[in-house]
Design a protein that fits this description.
Elements: H1 2-14, H2 24-37, H3 44-56, H4 59-78, H5 88-100, H6 106-119, H7 124-138, H8 142-156, H9 164-170
Length: 174
């Protein structure tokens, strides 16, 4: 999980106006994962790619990846492929991409936060709160985004992380 946070942080640092959030190594990880496990493996690299697109505000790309993962998880359950199913913490991250890529309600985000409080590991809880704030920011809801990003900083103050600077930079300018 720390590796995923570092990958996202590095992508943000390298990101330019024309760059995509997924760098070559991340795309390569998806290719390797697919080649090694096909559609029957746990799509962790695809989930990371979806998260990166969601953080960048590329809802269409993130949503398409969410749909792919959601279908693969549905099929894995139907085929009883336990090794291909996400753990609860990974399910939280998948749900986070879902909410961030549509106009989710406060009740949905609050329910996800409760799940994240119980299931998330390492820096994932910070990511859930931060992405909620970024989703509000991408939709032009600046006051809401600021309130949520400040909450993400509060969560980050309790968990060792590399994300605080990125969250501070995301705060709407006044």
């Amino acid at each position: 999980m720390a590796r995923a946070a570092i990958t996202i942080e590095r992508a943000w640092r390298r990101r330019s106006e024309t760059a995509t959030p997924a760098d070559r190594r991340q795309r390569r990880a998806v290719e390797i994962e697919h080649r090694r496990f096909g559609s029957s493996g746990k799509p962790l690299a695809v989930l990371l790619q979806a998260r990166m697109h969601a953080f960048a505000g590329d809802d269409a790309a993130a949503r398409a990846l969410w749909q792919e993962i959601h279908e693969r998880q549905r099929q894995a359950r139907a085929d009883q492929l336990a090794d291909a199913l996400f753990f609860p913490s990974e399910e939280v991250l998948l749900a986070m991409v879902d909410l961030a890529t549509r106009d989710a309600s406060d009740a949905e985000w609050n329910a996800l936060r409760e799940r994240a409080d119980r299931a998330s590991v390492e820096q994932e809880l910070i990511e859930v709160v931060e992405l909620r704030g970024r989703a509000a920011l991408h939709r032009g809801r600046l006051e809401e985004a600021e309130r949520i990003l400040l909450a993400a900083l509060e969560v980050a103050s309790r968990i060792p992380n590399i994300m605080e600077g990125r969250i501070r930079r995301a705060l709407p300018k006044r």
